[in-house]
Amino acid sequence: MNTVMQRMCFAVLFALVTCIRMPSVTMGSNISSTPVPSSDKGVDRVLELHISNFTEVVSRHDFVVIQFYAPWCTHCQRLAPIYEDAAALLEQPSSHIVLAKVDVSDPANEKLEGNVSSPSILIFKSFDEGFHQLTDFEDAKGIKEFLAEASIPSVIWFNKDATQRSYASKVFASHGDDGLVFLFSDHSVLERDAGEDSSYEAMERAYKQAARDYRGRGFRFFVADAENGQKAMEYFGVRPAKQDVPLSVVVLQGKDGKKYKLDNANATNLEAWLRDYFGGRLTEYFKSEVAAENESGSTVRVLVADTFESMVLQSSKNVLLELYAPWCSHCQELLPVLEEVSRSLEATDPDVLIYKMDAIANDVPDSRFQVKDFPTIYLYSAVSKNVIHFDGSVYDRNKQGILSFIHAHKESTSQSAHPTTEASMSTAVTAEESVLSSVNEEL
């Protein structure tokens, strides 16, 4: 689904949301660290902060939402019950979001107020960079969903850290339609020398900045090293780095599923590359296996994404293509059938070639070849360039059924080899008449 901000359309009210990176609290100085007092009523789920406990609360929690209000403010009065209801919705053991409020009309809180006007909401996060966004809420559910969204870092690290894994799980579970941006690198931010200002650190800073800049446009940013990101590398078709060449690759997958790849990514070319993407100037990237030799003894040729255009789209012959998955038992059962079909066609109909392509390890570079299930079979006609899908409800998936499908849809590509046209028939008749005439003359 789309992000919360894309799904929700709130009426304009009054909340200015400002996220500030902790632990730098600059709203006032000489703020004491008195413990948070317990609520007398035990029902107020919004913490009441003041100059005596502000620092202690903000520094103790990873994600603190603070409403700055004044009792006389009508907008604040309207927000109060909504804010309280949102706190109730967020009140669960697994939630790390804390909602609090500060009365800016109290002279003692003057140093906390700073330049903040009421009603305003500030979010203090210990794990992310700050951003500013004008956000409007009409109900508690809207606040809850916005805060759940804001509680996910701009950049998520693919590693063994449980917190990072939980962030990734939230994204893939609740924001499956978002675009994805992955930085694959041999370096790990958790292992690098803190004092070394390397090219990787410059790239990391540029990547984080890009994540903040483009997060509102429906993209999730991830970082994975070669050790912890192997599955993601396989999914995007990113190959391990060659010797003495560090891995630094950025892959973007848009909401439409199309992929784009930046090799040798660095702090200089990343921003320009992203601008080119949003400007529609990038060439689509298709993941591909390395082109390999055909399997020994097999008449079914092996196809990969990199050879798709030359071997299929530019082929002078009809092509029967099977798109398969290595783990699919139906695909495994179909392969010997295709071998039989291929051997039969080699002897009787050389106008047809049979290919197979692993549709898990390779992207299909032509959108007409949709992977509907496994196996999916298409015939690409040589002359008209039509793509015909094999319909299992019409043809049996056996040798005779596949041959019937081919003969029903293939196009002739070598007329001289098959004298079936009017011209060839006329030539044949003329030759026969000539022979008969010669025989009659001899008689």
Automatic annotation (TrEMBL):
InterPro entries xrefs: Thioredoxin-like_sf, Thioredoxin_CS, Thioredoxin_domain
The Thioredoxin domain, residue ranges: 25-212, 277-434
Source superkingdom: Eukaryota
EC number: 5.3.4.1
Subcellular location: Endoplasmic reticulum lumen
Sample GO molecular function, one term: protein disulfide isomerase activity
Polar residues composition bias: residue spans: 413-429
GO BP terms: protein folding; response to endoplasmic reticulum stress
Database matches in SUPFAM superfamilies: Thioredoxin-like
Low complexity: compositionally biased ranges: 432-443
CDD domains: PDI_a_family (cd02961), PDI_a_PDI_a'_C (cd02995), PDI_b'_family (cd02982)
GO CC annotation, single: endoplasmic reticulum lumen
Family membership: Belongs to the protein disulfide isomerase family.
UniProt protein name: protein disulfide-isomerase
Organism the protein comes from: Ceratopteris richardii (Triangle waterfern)
